[in-house]
Amino acid sequence: TNKTWSLSLKNGECRWGGTLLTLPGRIVENGSEQGSYDADKGIFTIRLPKETPGQHFEGLNMLTALLAPRKSRTAKPLVEEIDASEIPEEVVDDEEFDWEIEQTPYEEVSESALNPQCHYGFGNLRSGVFQRLQDELNDVIDIKNPDFTPAAERRQKRLAAELAKFDPDHYLADFFEDKAIEQILKYNPWWTDKYSKMKAFLEKSQEEENHAALVSFSEEEKYQLRKFVNKSYLLDKKACRQVYYSLIDILLAYCYETRVTEGEKNVESAWNIRKLSPTLCWFETWTNVHEIMVSFGRRVLCYPLYRHFKLVMKACSDTIKILQLGKSAVLKCLLDIHKIFQENDPAYILNDLYISDYCVWIQKVKSKKLAALAEALKEVSLTKAQLGLELEELEAAALLVQEEETALKAAHSVSGQQTLCSSSEASDSEDSDSTVSSGNEDSDSDSEQDELKDSPSETVNSLQGPFLEESSALLIVDGGVCRNTAIQESDANQGKPLASSQPLGVSGPLIEELEEQLKTTVQVSEPKSTTAVNHSNMQERDGRQTPND
C-alpha cells in the first residue's frame, strides 16, 4: 500500500504498476475510468470503458492468460552473424574431409533407432525425463523405460497388462450385487447443476457466450491460476489433435473419481485418476475418440474398487457435460486434478508433464472447439463386446448358473414339502392305526377281564363238582348226615354264608383227608386269588370242626 500505482491503457493492454494485463478486447482511455481500494481487504477495483460498449470479453476469469502479452516484442534480429573470433577453439575443426564414402545398401531403420528417446507429456513435447527420475516414477506409471519404448509397443504392453489384471469374479460380483453402484449413479456432482442452468439459459436466450459465467473460481483456485507461468505452445495439427484427445481421457478418469468418492477426495484419488487414464499411466497416444472410450472402459473394469459398465457410460455423460459448459468448467476440473497430484508425493511429476501445461493451454482455447469435441464424444457408441473382455459371455454363463441354482433350490423345496406331507400322512395313519388297535386291545382286555371274572367260579365249580360228588359219596357211605355239610361248603365258596349248625357224627380223619385233597386240587387248577379264598374258607371250616375232634 505504500507503493505508487499508475494506470495506463493502450488498446487491449492495461498496465497496473509493474503488472501487464492482456485483455481479450479493446479498451479506451476517455476519462471515465474509475478505481477504488479496499484497505481492509487489500483489493483494488478498476472499471475500464470498452471501445465497443456491450462487447463480450471472453476469458476474463482466465487469469494466467491475462498476466503476460500475447507475444514478445523485440527488435533484436532472429538470425545473427557471429564473428570468427567468438567461436571457441574446440569447435574449429581443421581436419581434412574424406570425400570417399563407403557405399552401403539402404536399410530401413526403425523409429526407435532414429530417435532413441521417445516423446511423451503434453503435446509429446517432453523426453529424457525418466532417465533421471526412473526410481521415483516406478510408482507413478506402469510403463518401464518410456524413453526407449515407442508408442506401438506401449499399447501392446498396456493391452496385455489389462487382460492379465481383469478379474471375472470381481466383475460378476459388482454386476449382480449393484446396490452400491446404483447409489453412486444417483450422485450429482457440481457440474450437473451448472449444466441444468446452462440448458435453461440457452432455451431462453439462445446465446452461448454468457453461460461461462455459471462457473466461478474460488480464491484458492484463483491463487493457483496466478502461480502458473503464461506461455505459448507451438503445436502442429497432429500434436494439437493429441492434446484434445488426451484431455478427454484425463477428464473421463476425473469424472469417475469424483463420482465414486461423491466429491470427497481421499488418499486413493490420485491413484484412481492416473490409473484410469492411459495418457497419464502409459503415455498413450490416440487416433480417434472411440479408442479412448474403449481403453477407459477396459481400465474401469480392471483396476478400481467399483467395476461396472454403467460407471463407464456415466463418466462419459459427465465428460460431455463438462465440455459443453466450456473452458471454465474444464479448467476448474484441471485445477482440482493439479491440487490432488500436488498433494501426492510421486504423482506431482505428472503435473510437470501434463496438468500444468493443460491449465495454461485451456485458457486460450475457444469454447466452440470444446463443444465440437463434446459432440464427437456424444456420437460414440460403446458396447461391452468392444472392450475385448468377453463380458457378455461371462454374464450369460453366470445367469445360466444362477437359473440352474434357482431351479435346484425350487426342486429341493418341493421335494422337502412332499416328504413333509408324506411323513405327516404316515404319522396320521399310524395314529389312527394305533387308536384302532388300542380300541381293539381295550375291547379284548375288557372281554378277557370279563372272562377272568367268570372263570374263577367256573373253575371252582368244575373242580368242586367231582370233588363234592366224591365227598358226597364218601359221606353217604359213612352216614348221610355229612352230605348236607358238603352242600353248605359249596354254597360258602359261592359267597353264601355258612349255617351256624355243625355237622354231627363226622370223624376227624375223614375231614383231614378231604381237606388235603381239596388243597391239592385248588393249588393245581385255580388262580392264586381263588385258592387263597378257598383256603381261608377251609381254615374257617376247619376251625369250626376242630372242637368236635
TrEMBL record:
InterPro entries: HSP20-like_chaperone, Shq1, SHQ1-like_CS, Shq1_C. Residues 207-391 form the Shq1 C-terminal domain. Residues 21-67 form the SHQ1-like CS domain. One of its GO terms (biological process) is box H/ACA snoRNP assembly. It comes from the Eukaryota. Gene3D superfamilies: 2.60.40.790. GO terms for cellular component: cytoplasm; nucleoplasm. This is Protein SHQ1 homolog. It comes from Cercocebus atys. The gene is SHQ1.
